């Protein structure tokens, strides 16, 4: 049986899709058969981040409405053997996703995969609700910024009360914090909330801290999940997060201001 | 910036600590609301109607709060009567 992980945040633009793509890719890199589902019906973007936008023939809604089979709709990643993407539909019909339909697709996937990653849309509407409803674990993506932290707390409340696990009285969803777009130098100057501050406010376990990095935009421009850029700080931070997700005890990196070397200070180095 | 400003600046809170303080307050407030039972707003409305039969009070002069302490809950009703 697969582990079902939702990547959620409440607020938009904090890095849910970037995270889903990188965590999914990282799990596949480590040999786990993984599928990433885009729940953002009407605004599909996971395909672009994964670089498979021109290979979408059938989507999630087609499978739910039984216009296509899962085998037809799953897009196999070009780079990794174990990785698949299920694209969102571009329909404007808000009711395209149904609880029964999503349950059927997820349970079919769960019996064939090790991990099912649900990339949630922003907000707390139907798409976001269904993305987290069947989850075993949640990665709450948060920026060190007031509106994002508040929305994450709201999302935590929903995970604890409106999920299938909550409704059936099962063991609650395992919640983990992923702090993205983190700038240690701004934290040091007192301009940005620090990782301890956000942890204290949300009081959930920290999965990782992804530093603000030029490599994220560079990777999304090319349709390559940033975790595959193993020279970048963001890529390495995602890699650590995947190891922690799998239960490894990895020390947190990139929390302190980078010390530039003598030559780098004179000539300026690559970020 | 002169020297005096520099020392004044250091005493001030940083933007990050202001953010943290604001978040702690709003998050605590919203968490309390989350555990409130659904009937609380209706209860507050009806209580207000009863009180209004006898005393003329404003909408915002009645506060209803439910507090959980161990295995019992306390319903706290706070009515501010107008000055006589």
From TrEMBL, chain A:
- Keyword flag Cell inner membrane: no
Query: Which molecular function term from Gene Ontology is one that the record holds?
Result: ATP binding
Task: Cite the InterPro entries for this sequence.
Answer: CobQ/CobB/MinD/ParA_Nub-bd_dom (IPR002586), MinD (IPR010223), MinD_FleN (IPR025501), P-loop_NTPase (IPR027417), ParA/MinD_ATPase (IPR050625)
Family to which this protein belongs: Belongs to the ParA family. MinD subfamily.
Q: Name one GO biological process term.
A: negative regulation of cell division
Q: What function does this protein fulfil?
A: ATPase required for the correct placement of the division site. Cell division inhibitors MinC and MinD act in concert to form an inhibitor capable of blocking formation of the polar Z ring septums. Rapidly oscillates between the poles of the cell to destabilize FtsZ filaments that have formed before they mature into polar Z rings.
Q: Which organism is it from?
A: Azomonas agilis
Listed A to Z, the keywords are: ATP-binding, Cell cycle, Cell division, Nucleotide-binding, Septation
**Subunit organization:** Interacts with MinC and FtsZ.
Domain of life according to the entry: Bacteria
For this entry, the protein name equals Septum site-determining protein MinD
Q: Which Pfam family, any one, appears in the UniProt record?
A: CbiA
TrEMBL record, chain B:
Record key words, sorted: Cell cycle, Cell division
Listed Gene3D superfamilies: Cell division topological specificity factor MinE
Q: Which Pfam families match?
A: MinE
GO BP, sorted A to Z: cell division; regulation of division septum assembly
Query: Which InterPro entries does the entry link to?
Result: MinE, MinE_sf
Record GO terms (molecular function): identical protein binding
Concerning its family, UniProt says:
Belongs to the MinE family.
- What's this chain's function? Prevents the cell division inhibition by proteins MinC and MinD at internal division sites while permitting inhibition at polar sites. This ensures cell division at the proper site by restricting the formation of a division septum at the midpoint of the long axis of the cell.
* Descriptive protein name: Cell division topological specificity factor
Organism phylogeny: Bacteria, Pseudomonadati, Pseudomonadota, Gammaproteobacteria, Pseudomonadales
Per the record, the gene is: minE
């Amino acid at each position: 049986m697969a582990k079902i992980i939702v990547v959620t945040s409440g607020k938009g633009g904090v890095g849910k899709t970037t995270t889903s793509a990188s965590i999914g890719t990282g799990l596949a890199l480590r040999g786990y058969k993984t599928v990433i589902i885009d729940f953002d019906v009407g605004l599909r973007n996971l395909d672009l981040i994964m670089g498979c936008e021109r290979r979408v023939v059938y989507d999630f809604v087609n499978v739910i409405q039984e216009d296509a089979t899962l085998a037809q709709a799953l897009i196999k990643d070009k780079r990794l053997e174990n990785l698949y993407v299920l694209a969102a539909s571009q329909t404007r019909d808000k009711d395209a996703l149904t609880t029964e339909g999503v349950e059927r697709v997820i349970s079919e996937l769960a019996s064939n995969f090790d991990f099912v990653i649900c990339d949630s849309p922003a907000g707390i509407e139907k798409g976001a609700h269904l993305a987290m409803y069947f989850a075993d674990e949640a990665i709450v993506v948060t920026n060190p910024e007031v509106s994002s932290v508040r929305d994450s707390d709201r999302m935590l409340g929903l995970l604890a009360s409106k999920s299938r696990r909550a409704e059936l009285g099962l063991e609650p969803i395992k919640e983990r914090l992923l702090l993205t777009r983190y700038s240690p130098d701004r934290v040091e100057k007192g301009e940005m909330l620090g990782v301890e501050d956000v942890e204290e406010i949300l009081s959930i376990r920290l999965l990782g801290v992804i530093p603000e990095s030029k490599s994220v935009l560079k990777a999304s421009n090319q349709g390559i999940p940033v975790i595959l850029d193993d020279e970048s700080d963001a890529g390495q931070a995602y890699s650590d997060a995947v190891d922690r997700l799998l239960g490894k005890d990895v020390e947190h990196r990139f929390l302190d201001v980078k010390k530039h070397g003598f030559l780098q200070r004179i000539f300026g180095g690559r970020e | 910036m002169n020297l005096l400003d520099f020392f004044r600046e250091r005493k001030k809170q940083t933007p990050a600590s202001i953010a943290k303080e604001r978040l702690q307050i709003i998050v605590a407030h919203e968490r309390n609301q989350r555990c409130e039972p659904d009937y609380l707003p209706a209860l507050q409305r009806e209580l207000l109607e009863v009180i209004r039969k006898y005393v003329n009070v404003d909408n915002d002069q009645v506060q209803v709060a439910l507090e959980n302490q161990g295995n019992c809950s306390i319903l706290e009703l706070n009515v501010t009567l107008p000055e006589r």
